[in-house]
Amino acid sequence: MQATQIRRGMVINVSGDPCKVMEFRHVTPGKGQAVVQTRLRNLRTGSSFEYRFRSTESVERVILDEQQFEYLYYDGNSYVFMNTETFEQVSLSEEILGDAIHYLLPNARITIEFYQSEPIGIQLPPTVDLKVVETEPSLKGATVSAQNKPAKLETGLVVQVPPFVEPGDIVRIDTTEGTYLERVKG
After folding, report:
1. What values do phi and psi take at 97, rounded to 5?
2. CB burial class (10 A; 0-12, 13-18, 19+) of residue 16?
3. 78-114 pLDDT per residue, tens
4. How confident is the model at residue 12, as a pLDDT?
């Protein structure tokens, strides 16, 4: 495909490695050739970098194999997942998972992405519901417009929540931004 067809979220081949497009921008200078400026993340190494394509350049789109897995447990070194169809188990390191470890609960169903039979990442659901384990008590008479407070969730993630959220509450978290959306159960 042409470089001008690059969109956010696509996976493309750059120097033999699968890279996810995090940001892209079409730049048309006053003179000279138009370019596509991108911010890419190498799915094998996890490193992010900027890359500029000429608008006429051809780019190879990478199609990842996606399979449904269930998160089982953390064994001290890696996170263990089971394929829901074949019952095959796969262990993924913290480096591959990155921030996704803060959204994993046992028995959660997720999609693991494979490139040439090698697991390179996961797709989280858009939201997860997590239990608040620790937060400051709310002040009597505090209004909704009061400042948010930090809350530690069952996975170790710390997010800012409204003052009415208490320990034991279940809150919905946006997995792309890592932010509080709403209280599900209080």
Report:
1. -80, -35
2. exposed
3. 999 999 999 999 999 888 888 889 999 999 999 998 8
4. 92
Nearest to 74 by CA among 46, 102, 47: 102
Backbone angles phi, psi at 150, to 5 degrees: -75, 145
Q: What is the pTM of this model?
A: 0.72
Q: 69, exposed or middle or buried, with CB in 10 Å at 0-12, 13-18, 19+?
A: buried
pLDDT average, residue stretch 43-61: 88
Give alpha helix (H) positions in 36-152.
Answer: 94-97
Compute the distance between CA of residue 31 and CA of residue 143 in angstroms, rounded to an integer: 56
Separation of alpha carbons 170 and 175, rounded Å: 15
Q: Please name each of the domains of the chain with its CATH number.
A: 3-61 (2.30.30.30), 65-123 (2.40.50.140), 127-185 (2.40.50.140)
Which residue, among 34, 47, 46, 44, has the nearest Cα to 6 in the 3D structure? Answer: 34
Structure token pair of residue 44: 């094998």
Distance CA 105, CA 118 (A): 23
Residue 165 CA from chain centroid, whole number: 25
